[in-house]
Amino acid sequence: MKFEIKKLRIIVTGGSGYLGVHVRRFFRADDFSRRAGFNVLSADDAARLDDYDVVIHLAAHLDKNPAAAEECFRTNTEGTANVLRHLRPGAVFIYASTKDVYGAHANAYMEVPETCPTDYCGQSALEWSKLIGERLVDYYAAARGLRACIFRLSGIYARPSEGNEPGFVTHYVEAIKRGQALRLPADGTPVRDILHVDDLARACRAFIDSSSARGLYNLGGGRANAVSLRELCETVGRIAELEPQFDETADAPAPIPINYISDLTLIRRELGWQPTISIEDGLRDLL
Fold first, then answer.
1. 54, 109 contact by CB (below 8 A)
2. What is the reported pLDDT for 165?
3. 27, 36, 48, 251: which has the fewest Cβ within 10 Å?
4. Residue 85 in contact with residue 137, Cβ under 8 Å?
5. CA 285 to CA 282: how far, in whole Å?
6. Structural contact between residues 134 and 153, judged by C-beta atoms closer than 8 angstroms
7. What is the count of structural domains for the chain?
8. DSSP secondary-structure letter at 254?
9. pTM, two decimal places
10. pLDDT band for position 4 (50/70/90)?
11. What percentage of the chain has pLDDT greater than the value 70?
12. Could you tell me whether strands 191-193 and 226-228 are parallel, antiparallel, or unpaired per DSSP bridges?
């Protein structure tokens, strides 16, 4: 089944956020966000989603601080359920989850598949709320006849946008441009697979265009776009012709897992999607 994107009514929750502004521009979609005057926790606001063919749900409270646990659960679980309850049967719902639902279990894999365990192993309320959100997607998709896709995102990056906290890739790029010293965890050795936001949007389009009723996929740059944090900074410095500055005395906490690379086998096979923007081209776009 092939849909004409231009004929679909598409809306992005969190459409004014770090990733949302770019996904919304890609689809020429409407914005459902607090900056646009809408709240995912409001039933009255969510009622307008019934008018849309596709809802890309990026709105979330992204804070791993234990003090933020209640807000994470409210926004990421109650807010997600509120959105799902107001979609019309047959609508497409795309949910942005996170690779961090795997926690330390991902350390057991060179490339992490969707079958990696998600049992509790110290994940924060943020990850746990996202995992509960995934189960809500499963329930409401079946109960309301939705076409639903869950993406467990890894290292998505985008150009800076006003009023938004950048992801780690954009943070590194901006710090190097400004000559600021960077604190790298574990001497910069942790590896991450990174993905340009336009490739995230293309993955959304691949599901919309497909005949799949359900999907759950790891979504990142994969092996071809995996790089250590120090190599990432050195690549930015080479492209920008600037010398990255590192605070070698800083003891930044090591990430969990230490290394993470998405296994893209399933999404390639089922949606025919793969990254199209290389690390080099993506970083040049940021610069």
1. no
2. 87
3. 251
4. no
5. 5
6. no
7. 1
8. P
9. 0.94
10. low
11. 98
12. antiparallel
Measured CA to CA, the distance from residue 209 to residue 70 in angstroms comes to: 36
**85 lies in which domain range?**
5-286
- Could you tell me the two tokens for 72? 């994470």
Tell me the average pLDDT across 105-132.
Answer: 96
Structure tokens at 198: 């336009």
Amino acid (1-letter code) at residue 109: Y
Q: Are 153 and 219 in contact (CB under 8 A)?
A: yes
In DSSP notation, 10-51 reads: EEEETTTSTTHHHHHHHHT-EEESGGGT--TT-HHHHGGGGG
Written as six digits, the tokens of 185 are 């965890």
Q: Which amino acid is at 199?
A: D
CA 108 to mean position of chain CA atoms: 22
Closest Cα to residue 188, out of 139, 247, 118, 105? 247
- C-alpha separations of 151 from 49, 169, 250 in Å: 21, 19, 34
CA atoms within 13 A on the CB side of 191: 18
Of 6-10, 125-129, 185-189, 265-269, which range is least confident? 6-10
Output the pLDDT for position 214. 97
CATH number for the domain spanning 83: value is: 3.40.50.720
Residue recorded with tokens 């800076």 = 160
